[in-house]
Design goal:
It is built from twelve helices and no strands. It is mainly alpha-helical.
């Protein structure tokens, strides 16, 4: 393999010709473009979505949250897997004007093709655009969809070919997910006999874990770039496992706790947030800090971190809120 292997030897699609042709102004305009590029970088990352998804799922609409969750988690898995398989390098030997945009906030160590931020921009923000009819929000969503791919080239972290690949994957995923939920809106609703609920739930949960846990075996004897790309796969598989195991257990074993309306008041919002945030702080942030402090950032630990985070969000936060509100209602009628 070449020292700088790219998907295709093409100076425009996988070279610096187009990147260096993009104007990089200085002064106020340059600072605005740099800040917007940094914002799009943040909004396409796990730290942003790990807060967005729980609140959409638990505070806005459960079914829409499930759709958004499937979109996000599939992006992490398929995009990371594509990076891992294609092993296409990111841009190098860039001008100082481009490197100045990257700063310390826009740094990438995984392979380049396809662009994950371009993939997630059209898929997730496309779903949000179709869901919400507010003109101001739609304008913002459209800006994110269009500017994010440009910002990845402007910051020099992706070639045009990477961006085109990510955008194509995102558009394809958007069409498939919208078609799936339009054609089968209740495909995740389960109806089982009482005596078989526990057995079926346990069997499905174990099967999901067994299938997704196999991704942790891919990390033996690989390079730093492969490890970084594989991290996306582990985020996807661990999150998918926790998400669906939690969802199945909630809907089959605790059907009453799986029904809720969107937030009705400020007090209701903070009550629900009070059940969501501890799990995010403990499993996502806390385990992340613990892993770095004790050098536990191996594949199994990463998988477990995202599994537990999503399991808590989908299952234990709604359960806690349900029994809390039930107790409040019961106490109020005594």
């Amino acid at each position: 393999m070449n020292e700088h292997h790219v998907l295709f030897e093409n100076g425009y699609l996988f070279g610096n010709l187009f990147l260096e042709a993009i104007p990089h102004p200085t002064g106020a305009l340059g600072e605005v473009l740099r800040l917007l590029s940094t914002l799009c970088h943040f909004m396409g990352g796990a730290n942003f979505f790990v807060f967005l998804l729980p609140f959409v799922y638990f505070c806005y609409n459960k079914n829409f949250g499930i759709k958004l969750g499937i979109a996000l988690l599939s992006t992490a898995f398929f995009n990371g897997l594509a990076k891992y398989l294609f092993e296409s390098a990111r841009p190098i030997d860039l001008s100082d004007a481009i490197l100045a945009v990257q700063s310390d906030l826009i740094k990438e160590s995984s392979f380049g093709f396809p662009s994950g931020h371009s993939h997630v921009s059209i898929l997730v923000w496309g779903i949000l655009f179709l869901e919400f009819r507010n003109k101001l929000f739609r304008a913002f969503a459209l800006f994110v969809i269009l500017f994010t791919p440009f910002s990845r080239m402007y910051a020099g972290v992706h070639y045009p070919g990477d961006v085109l690949g990510g955008f194509t994957m995102g558009l394809t995923s958007l069409i498939l997910i919208e078609f799936l939920f339009y054609k089968f809106p209740n495909f995740l609703n389960f109806s089982l006999q009482e005596e078989s609920k526990v057995r079926v739930t346990r069997s499905i949960s174990l099967a999901i874990i067994a299938v997704t846990l196999g991704s942790t075996l891919l990390s033996k004897g690989i390079t730093h770039q492969q490890i970084s790309s594989l991290e996306q796969v582990l985020i996807g598989t661990g999150s998918i496992a926790g998400f669906f195991v939690g969802l199945i257990n909630l809907q089959i074993l605790f059907p009453k706790a799986s029904q809720w309306d969107r937030v009705s008041s400020v007090k209701d919002f903070f009550t629900r947030a009070g059940f969501l945030l501890p799990g995010i702080l403990i499993f996502y942030i806390g385990l992340g800090i613990l892993g770095k402090a004790f050098n536990l950032e191996d594949s199994l630990f990463r998988y477990a971190r995202y599994f537990l985070t999503n399991l808590y969000i989908v299952l234990f936060a709604p359960l806690g809120w349900y029994y809390y509100t039930k107790k409040i209602t019961t106490d109020g009628h005594r």
